[in-house]
Amino acid sequence: MVSEKELYAHLKQEFGFTRFKAGQKQVIQRLLAGGSTVAILPTGTGKSLCYQFVGTYTNQTVLIISPLLSLMQDQVEQLRLKGEKRVVALNSNLSYAAKKQILANLHQYLFIYLAPEMLNNPVVLAALTDIDLGLLVVDEAHCISAWGPDFRPDYLQLGKLRQKLGFPVTLALTATATKRVTSDMMRSLKLGRKVKVIRNSVDRPNIFLAVEKSADTQEKNQRLIQLIRSLPAPGLIYFSSKKQCDQICALLNAKSKLTVASYHAGLPAGDRYAVQQQFLGGQIDLICATSAFGMGINKPDIRYVIHYHLPENLESYLQEIGRAGRDGQQSLALILYSEQDRGLQQHLALSALPTNAELEILQNSPQLLEKSSQENQSAQLVWRYMQMGVSFPQMSAVFSQRRTEKLQALQQILAYVNTQGCRRKFI
Ligand code: ADP
Ligand code: MG
User: Fold this and answer.
1) Which of the 8 DSSP states describes residue 15?
2) Helix or strand or coil: residue 6?
3) Max Cα distance, the chain (Å)
4) Domain Helicase C-terminal: where (predicted)?
5) Closest ligand, as measured to the CA of 39
6) Quick check: helix, strand or coil at residue 212?
7) pLDDT at 205
8) Burial of 126: CB neighbours in 10 Å, binned 0-12, 13-18, 19+
9) Which atom of ligand 1 is nearest the CA belonging to 298?
10) Residue 148: its pLDDT value, please?
């Protein structure tokens, strides 16, 4: 086992830090001892340092699966800034020539970042199986679970990848801690029974949990204006609909002195990036967002997270409000609820998944399927599953199961909203 003294010496020398943050040392020691690990640590804990430490310490290649291009780019920049040149990001932004060049020289990199969609590329897979891998990292590993807030079908292939790579020592990283997501993660990644779960408490005592009910939309909007005029910024408001996200954003800009911007998947990537950077830099006070906003974002001083609509489930709610008060200062998590929100959330829960009738149409018309998979979320899901070799009857079973689960999750969040008892205890 590596001595404490050596660990601290390496931390100081490679990263310039004198202390480990909560959980880091435990994870690193475990990985250095050759044990696969699931690390559930709040955002901002320095999860990346865990594998960067192991890579630089052992000088063995680390392969990191990362779901977002922007996150990947940030990590690559950080490593380069600290003088590590053996870093590369394999994603769909690369030209064919650049990709070919990188793949031919893959063994010379210490850190290889990989976008999950690249797993569909047999050439990439072949190149990966050729290198001598020290550690496989799955960042934002909750994306593997349909229960998590950021499900990515491509992540479902990671179990197969592990197998192809000969079951290397693996580190699954996430800030989302529920049991259901964790067991999904372990099963999908085929982590086996010897895996160790290292988790830090998700209870965030400095976040005040509240729910306010309004009779209708007009009353809700009035209350929202009142709130953002009086609450300290910066803040974050979540919406389930892009259209309302934009509308309320305009309303709040007009009715307050704050600089408010909206953020959702309907905006061009460049705009989204700019909004995110300006929010981090303090030029924007308030963001109106859909669930597309937030993963990997580490802004310590967010004072409130308001949900204008009902959150999709308790898991995503915890993930979303966890973005408040990272600096430990008093913060607020508030759901603004009115009766009609329930119907909207129920509609969303059901419409994201294709019905049996839709499945049948898509099955009988491959052209239609290919075309609609570019525009429509549920057709895209069918397309992805097909690429993975899932049959239509299997899909139908999966979707119907998931519909039931989604409705149960909705019941749970409604119970949270309506509870008369302590909300913290409920969670
Ligand atoms: P996470 O992925 O858990 O959200 P990151 O890996 O992005 O967190 O790290 C968040 C920040 O914490 C980074 O700026 C990183 O440099 C910093 N950090 C990591 N480890 C330490 C440490 N031991 N001491 C001080 N700062 C650290
Ligand atoms: Mg991270």
Assistant:
1) I
2) helix
3) 65
4) 223-373
5) 1
6) strand
7) 85
8) exposed
9) 4
10) 66
CB 337 within 8 A of CB 310: yes
Q: What is the pLDDT of residue 149?
A: 65
Answer yes or no: are the C-beta atoms of 304 and 334 closer than 8 Å.
Answer: yes
DSSP 148-177: STT--GGGGGHHHHHHHTT---EEEEES--
Close Cβ partners of 404 (under 8 Å, ≥ 6 residues apart): none
Torsion of CA 277, 283, 288, 291, to 10 degrees: 20
| Residue to substitute in 298, 323, 326 for testing ligand 1 pocket (most ligand atoms within 8 angstroms of CB) | 298
What size, in residues, is the chain?
427
pLDDT value of residue 294: 87
Once rounded to an integer, what is the mean pLDDT over residues 303-327? 91
CA distances from 143 to 73, 111, 116 (A): 19, 21, 10
Q: Which has the closest alpha carbon to 104: 83, 131, 76, 82?
A: 131
Residue pointed to by tokens 């996430």: 174
Helix 47-58, helix 69-81: angle, nearest 10: 50
Q: What average pLDDT does this structure show over 105-120?
A: 94
Q: Measured at the alpha carbon of residue 119, what is the angle toward residues 107 and 70, in degrees to the nearest 5?
A: 85
Q: How far is the CA of 153 from the centre of ligand 2 (A)?
A: 20
Q: Whose CA is nearest to atom 16 of ligand 1?
A: 46
The rounded mean pLDDT for the chain is 91
Query: Is the pTM here over 0.80, yes or no?
Result: no
Residues 106, 65 contacting (CB under 8 angstroms): no
The C-alpha atoms of residue 238 and residue 263 are separated, in whole angstroms, by 10
Q: Average the pLDDT over each of 46-60, 258-272, 369-383, 412-426 and give the range with the smallest value.
A: 369-383
Pair of tokens at residue 343:
């119907």
ipTM of the complex: 0.98
pLDDT tens-digit readout, 186-215: 999 999 888 999 988 667 889 999 999 999
